[in-house]
Amino acid sequence: MSTRLARGGRLIDRATAHEFTFNGKRMAGFAGDTLASALLANDQMLVGRSFKYHRPRGIVASGAEEPNALVNLGQGARLEPNQRTTTTELFPGLAAASQNHWPSLEFDVGVVNNAVARFLPAGFYYKTFLQPRAAWKHLFEPVIRASAGLGRAPTEADPDRYEQAYAHCDLLVVGGGIAGLQAALTAAGTGARVIVLEQTAHWGGRAPVDDVLIDEKPADHWVAATVAALSAMPNVTLRLRCMAAGVYDHGYVLAEERVADHTPGDGRPKKRLWRIRAAKVITATGAIERPLPFAGNDIPGVMLASAVRDYIVNWAVSPGDRVVIVTNNDDAYRTAIAVHRAGLTVPAVLDARTEADGDLVQEVRSLGIAVHLNRGIAKVKGGRRVSGVAVCAQAGEGAVLDEIACDAVAMSGGWSPVVHLWSHCGGKLIWDEAQAAFRPDPQRPPITHDGQAMVAAVGSANGLLQADEVLADAIRAAGGSGPAPKVHAPAEAAMVPVWMMPQGASAELRAKMWLDYQNDVKVADVQLAAREGYESVEHTKRYTTLGMATDQGKLSNINGLAVLAGSLNAPIPQVGTTTFRPPYTPVTLGALAGEARGEIFQPLRRTPMHDWHQAHGVYWEPVGLWRRPYCYTRPGESHADAVKREVVNARSHLGLLDASTLGKIVVKGPDAGRFLDMMYTNVMSSLPVGRCRYGLMCNENGFLMDDGVVARISDDTWLCHTTSGGADRIHAHMEDWLQCEWWDWQVYTANLTEQYAQIAVVGPSARKLLEKLGGMDVSKEALPFMHWAEGTLAGIPARAFRISFSGELSYEIAVPAGQGLAFWEACIAAGKEFGLMPYGTEALHVLRAEKGFIMIGDETDGTVIPQDLNLGWAVSKKKADFIGKRGQERTFLASPDRWKLVGLETLDGSVLPDGAIAPAPGMNANGQRNTQGRVTSTYYSPTLKKGIAMGLVHRGPDRMGEVLEFPKIWGGVVKARIVDPVFYDKAGEKQDV
Amino acid sequence: MLILECPYCGVKAEETELSPGHEAHLKRFGPGSSDEQFESYMFARKNPKGVHFERWRHTYGCGKWFLAARCTATLEVFGTYPAQTSEPPADIVAKIKARRPNWEGVK
Ligand SMILES: [Zn+2]
């Protein structure tokens, strides 16, 4: 069993006990414990189930690489799934629950998957997708859905606060072990601004656990002194609990700081996302120990050798009374020594090598511990907990030579440098034969803006596993020259790669050798993938799901790669690695969102009349970042009723529309007319001062991108109205051409959209209202249709544009934004006697559709040219050039054989479904039904009391009167006749009075 | 996230301040051009792994378009210069040649 030792534990404070619960069971630990160490201290080795076979899973590691011990942490709104117990600091009242099991951790129904494991081979998902659809739907999916998934997603909004911070430095050091601290000390001594990030809550890394002596003293002393020295330097920032998630272009680094994870609810932000720009990055990220592939290596109680010694030394937790060590290197002998020192038993060290007599091996032998060479584990015995191991010759096929009773196995397959951050932005790796690991290739580092190396790896992250080499490496990488502190470390002999144990293992054993614990990928699965033709490591990864779990293969990738290389008979470096992508460990979405949630998720654009709308029954419609009134409801009224009322009232009396969101771009200068003739398809240079003209804008491809009314303000000034969503885009489009193509033209543009409030006064009584407000002549004679005039209305300076998007007598009045509300309220007050009602965007749409006016984004979709919309009259034939002219000359656009705008009138008066498509006879090359038209705008017309629609129909205008059938989503068809798209006032008399 | 120095305002702008604008130094073909010319102008854009000339706009800064020469593979920036330039400036070309001796040159 696992238990708390009576003495020791360099990180725990025995004076401060913390109570916590696991699956509702009350347990106790100490301040300084991780949840993993506290669980082990309470003999809770079984902590979860694997994803596919629901195999019992125990704690394997002691850090960020842990694949198994993930829990649902917290409750209610603070529930967080998939939290690694090995990196979760214990706090009083912590509540954790295991995941991926039903009905209980101890008895799990999903374990039947285990019994049918041979039916769930590598590529299971790919293969079942190829089965008949019915088999997937009725057979596989329900079973998999019921048992799949790791943690539970919280159902309540996150009550915690997250923040983001920016930092800049000359050197960012990632990793607070002895390598990182030495590099920081060296660089800071030159005056450089240095930031040091350490993902755990403690400085020092592995050295203090591994008995390293620096300057004749235990490493702890040097670590404390160095941290103290760094803390005293004003140019150094130290951050614990801060994980560098990714290295990006030009020294940009994202890091997640766990500010209050261990002190929940104390008012501080739960996490802080650091956005750091570093001139240079040093990764001192250490190395991760590899498991050994032997049968039963996933049974709870089998742990990494380094983890076993971490639990003993750091937290005074014994993972077991009898710990068998199995290794291919000298480092694991440190674990034998630690176990022995703790007063526990090491029945044997099984060393796969044929020779071993390094300093550590000799020390272990001198302690009286049995060391067996050329030995491995044939099989681990036990179910939910290790009960023993069957010993075999590593060189053989697995014949059992001996059995050893034990309750824990400490395994070491060698160490892999943590090269993630080095690799994120293009750093390349080389294969280190001696360590059997990939390490950073110093000749091919990630490059920054000036072509120099952006990242340097130091210490174990650089493949240097001997402590005496590490400090010198750190000093060199940080640009220092002085001597390194004297480090005492025992001499270690070479490791020997072991990718399978024993090397000639039978198929039965290979099917029980786990590579990826979380996703249940075994040696046999990777070998099967290779036999089925998966030669690329990227394909094998996706086919087998190796390394695709939440741990991203920190323990499994190299072993899996080696097994694949072995199956393909190729050298490991030739097979290559999969791509390392950020984040290094999962980052909480809350931290990425930071403060950008709720009201400040994105900026809200308000027109000057926003608050008036809010106070008068508005139902908002988001239009880009704007909010526009969709309609104004009265008590008891539905939205549809309100829209009908607003439409009818505008046609019969008087309507008022807040049109302030319309884009307003001033174009001015000696070459402004010439420029606008290039921007618009029609001629704007000839527009007389005081007149308005409807204009179309196309992109260079010839497709319609925006429309609006242009007014000539003065000899050298035009005012271009754009669509509400188009102002910024069109302004940018103009600037692009002015700056990059016709930079010698003298033109100035300004986007004045927010400088003016714009109010449409619409309906038969529009003129009467403006006359009542008084101040300028708005008669037909003084201000005819498609003219504009400047003056005052209700004492407010105003421009009145005689334009109509409704077909009614209409004025659009622009006033300074600051006086928009005053003008609006003046209209409301004066309009009472004329029956004035404000109307919203939906009534606007119905009014324009009744008139057959197109709307950018409804009738256009980026593939529509003006001629498709019967707007050829607005495309100049005389102009030598305009943006889009050459594009429209291409044969397929110039052809009459296109889908064109028509009106659609249902035979039964119903409203056509939006986006409905009219099929045509036959099939296309992809075996899909041919089509001949689609609905682009469709509304109920209160004016005509029936459904009206516009659509694009193949050669539509030539087919007037023809009836098309539009299938409805839930069956049946709607029949609609092709008609003129102008449903109301075809002659245009009402707007021109 | 790249950092590019805006040649107008001198700001070392982070990518979030900038809008990308695809290949630089395109020659516009309008009415009267052949189908082949128009196609090459509209669609045949270079996408090299290596030295590339690009348009960028300092959108959330001074609003000006500028051009950048950089390596798309290593993210090395050889220089930025005003958009009112019809071919890469000689000093930038010289710098690229020094850094990339095998570079095929401006085509
Ligand atoms: Zn700028």
Tell me about this structure:
- The complex is a heterodimer of chains A (993) and B (107).
- With 993 residues, chain A is α+β, with helices and mostly antiparallel strands.
- Chain A has seven domains: 1-157, Ubiquitin-like (UB roll) (Roll), CATH 3.10.20.440; 162-287 and 417-481, FAD/NAD(P)-binding domain, CATH 3.50.50; 291-413, FAD/NAD(P)-binding domain, CATH 3.50.50.60; 513-588, Arc Repressor Mutant, subunit A (Orthogonal Bundle), CATH 1.10.10; 610-661 and 755-848, Probable tRNA modification gtpase trme, domain 1 (Gyrase A, domain 2, 2-Layer Sandwich); 663-754, Alpha-Beta Plaits (2-Layer Sandwich), CATH 3.30.70.1400; 892-979, Elongation Factor Tu (Ef-tu), domain 3 (Beta Barrel).
- Helix content of chain A is 22%, strand content 29%.
- Chain A has 26 helices and 52 strands.
- In chain A, strand 43 (788-793) and strand 44 form a beta hairpin.
- In chain A, helix 8 (333-341) packs parallel to helix 9 (359-366).
- The radius of gyration of chain A is 37 Å and the shape is elongated.
- The N and C termini of chain A lie far apart (95 Å).
- The mean pLDDT of chain A is 94.
- By secondary structure, chain B is α+β, with helices and mostly antiparallel strands.
- Chain B has one domain: Folate-binding fold (2-Layer Sandwich), CATH 3.30.2270.10.
- Helices cover 17% and strands 29% of the residues of chain B.
- Chain B contains two helices and six strands; from the N terminus they run E-E-E-H-E-E-E-H.
- In chain B, the strands form two sheets. Chain B has a four-stranded antiparallel beta sheet, covered by helices on one side.
- The two termini of chain B are 28 Å apart.
- The relative contact order of chain B is 0.21.
- Zinc ion binds next to loops of chain B.
- Residues 6, 8-9, 11, 58, 61-62, 64 of chain B line the site of zinc ion.
- Chain B: GO terms for molecular function: sarcosine oxidase activity.
- Chain B: This is Heterotetrameric sarcosine oxidase delta subunit.
- Chain B: It comes from Cereibacter ovatus.
